[in-house]
Each structure stands twice: as C-alpha cells, then as structure tokens.
Design a protein that fits this description.
about 375 residues, 2 domains, 5-stranded mixed β-sheet, 11 strands, single chain, Rossmann fold
C-alpha cells in the first residue's frame, strides 16, 4: 500500500512538472502519467495543451473483430467480447472528446466519433540498418533455394498454420524453398534472419498493408507478402500515394502469391527495392516526427483525414472470414444489435448484421494487389 501511495504521488508530481515544462503531448497505447489516460487528457485540456493520441490497433478495434483475443474458455464467450467492446467504445469516445487529433488505422477505427488522421499517412518510424547489417548479396545469390522468413508474434492470429501449409504446397510444385520461422526470440535474431532471407510472409489476416515486421523487411530491401480481406477497403479509404508497396493478397491466394515471388527473382528484387525506397523516403524517424509536429501545430491537411462513418470493413484482424462472421453472429445473439456498439453508424451496423447472417457477401476484391 505504501509503495502504491508513493507511486501515485510521484506520477502526480511528474504530471505537474510536465504541464509546466511542455506545450505539446503525444500519447499512445498504455502511455499515461496517472495510469488513467482520460484524467491526463482532461488535465492537459484544462491547461490548454495540444494533444495527439495515437491508436495502434487492438486498443481501438472492436473485440469481436480482433483475432488476437482468445476464443477459448470463459474469455472467449460472446458476453466477454460484448463487455470488451463496450469498454473500448466508451474509452475511445472519451479520448475523441479530449484530444486535438486522433491517429488510427482506417480499417480498425469503428468506434471513433470524429474524423481521424490516417495512421498509414503518419507512418511507422523506420531506422535504416547500418552498413555492417546490410545483407550479403553474394551469400543470397549463391543459394539455389529461396529463403522465406515468417516471424509471428501471435501465431494464431497471424495465420501461421496456414502459412506453413502454403509453403508445403508450393514446395510440392517443385520449388526449392528454405522456410525459416522465428518467434519469441530477441529482436536482434529477427534482424539477423531478415538479412539472410529472400522474402517475408508477414501475416494472413491483416487490416493494414504494412505493419512493423513488413516495415523492418523493407529496411533491408526484402519484399513482403501480407494477406487479408481489405484490398478494396484500402483503395477506397487510403490515399493512393500512402499505400506501401507490398504484395497484399486475399488469404485464398496465399499459395499463388508465394509461388509468384519464389519463381521470379527479378520481381522480388524490384519489390524489395520499392519497399526500401518507400520507407527511406516517407517513414524515416524524421519524416514521422515532422508529421506529428504538424498535427501538434494544428496544420493537418484534409488529405490526411478519414471519416469513421465511411467504414464498411467487416472482417477485422487475425480472423478468417468464417471466424469473423461467427463472432459477429454470436455477439448479436447474446446482446442484440446494440452489443456491436455502432448505433451511431447505421450503415456499418446493417452491413455487419448482414455479414453475420450471410445475407450479403463482401464485395469481390482483386485476387492480389500491390501498390508497387
């Protein structure tokens, strides 16, 4: 109890010091002076400080569309998902009211009540590898097989079992593939494997075209395959020049996408170089910091913004289509349509209901897409 009291006092003193020291504040998931972000934001707003709040996915995404949340045991019940969705919607709505700008992924921002800044426009802070960490081209060229790297932080939601099977299927067609899977290892080990691979398969059910692992691959000039159901949603909601050059494919086309890059070394090289140019020209630490500074200074271009009321994406993250439909159907059966927490977005609410009832199929999407 004494330690807890001291922690509260020290955190309060830190907040008071920061209020008088700084004019601008950037918050992200889990960052808080008092372990209560809303209290922090209210205090900062009272003192007329400018605040940018950056969401990172699961901190804003509806729990029933988040495959990283367990689906077994008590924590996987529809009631649990409904409770989590309610808590997330209330927290997101409160932060919306108190931050000057919100940065989030356009395909996981279902609960926001105001225009948000595209996370993909702000970017992932990227650090170019040092010269001694660059891949040995002679080593890569001397191999007969194609080395594919997969590094799942959460194998279930990343679709790892399907990715393994896809590698087996492509090998069965006569292609020589060396598959490397690394998980739960130090970051330095992952970077070492990125140096030695020819391409990466990031994940299978992503609602963003280039997350952290694909960004790291781009730093080394390695092409990335990213699977998901969001190709048309990206084209509709994201600025065209902000979409990173990855091979984004429908989950059903994973094998053909792997085969395409395995069979064509020229394409691998070209896509890898395009991805590297993208992060080096748009997502450096300086570039990302400059965009955040523009937000803090209140000069946000209209092209950076999206309206959450325009979201129509139903598949979520880390789930195949049947799993997503099942989760939405279960939460509606448990708590009614209200449990979706989307009464302010009737079009999206109706679309999710039809999605769950299989009355409306998602629009056809290209079998594979790439901004490269």
């Amino acid at each position: 109890m004494r330690l807890l009291l001291w922690e509260i006092v020290l955190r309060l003193l830190l907040l008071i010091w920061a209020v008088f020291k700084f004019d601008f504040f950037i918050f992200g998931f889990g960052s808080s002076f008092l372990k209560r972000p809303l209290i922090d934001l209210k205090v900062l707003k009272f003192f007329r400080k400018r605040v940018v709040f950056v969401f990172h996915g699961s901190d804003a995404r509806p729990a029933y569309l988040d495959g990283s949340i367990a689906t077994d045991g008590q924590e996987g019940t529809a009631r649990h998902f409904a409770d989590l969705a309610r808590a997330t919607e209330q927290r997101v709505s409160a932060i919306d009211r108190h931050a000057d700008y919100i940065v989030d992924n356009a395909l996981s921002a279902h609960f926001h009540k105001r225009p948000c800044v595209h996370w993909i426009v702000v970017g992932v802070p990227s650090v170019a590898p040092s010269n001694d960490a660059l891949p040995n081209d002679e080593f890569v060229r001397s191999r007969r097989s194609v080395r594919i790297l997969h590094s799942p932080s959460h194998p279930e939601s990343k679709g790892t079992s399907r990715i393994r099977q896809a590698i087996v299927d492509v090998r069965a067609r006569g292609f020589e593939i060396e598959y490397v899977e690394i998980s739960g290892r130090p970051h330095a080990d992952v970077l070492g494997e990125l140096m030695r691979c020819d391409l990466v398969v990031d994940q299978l059910y992503s609602d963003t075209p280039m997350a952290t692992f694909a960004t790291e691959a781009a730093q080394f000039g390695k092409p990335a395959i990213v699977g998901g159901y969001g190709a048309l949603a990206f084209q509709r909601m994201l600025p065209a020049d902000a979409i990173p050059p990855v091979l984004y494919c429908h989950p059903d086309d994973l094998e053909s996408s792997i085969e395409r890059l395995v069979a064509d070394p020229t394409l691998r090289t070209a896509m890898g170089h395009a991805a590297q140019r993208f992060v080096e020209s748009r997502w450096t630490q300086r570039d990302v910091a400059a965009r955040l500074l523009r937000l803090l200074q209140g000069s946000c271009p209209e092209s950076w913004l999206f309206d959450p009321n325009e979201i129509r994406y139903c598949h979520g993250y880390g789930l195949n289509e049947d799993q997503a439909r099942g989760r939405v159907a279960e939460i509606i059966a448990e708590g009614g349509v209200e449990a979706l927490r989307l009464r302010d977005k009737p079009d999206l609410e109706d679309r999710l209901c039809n999605f769950a009832r299989r009355k409306e199929s998602p629009p056809l999407m290209p079998s594979c897409s790439s901004s490269f």
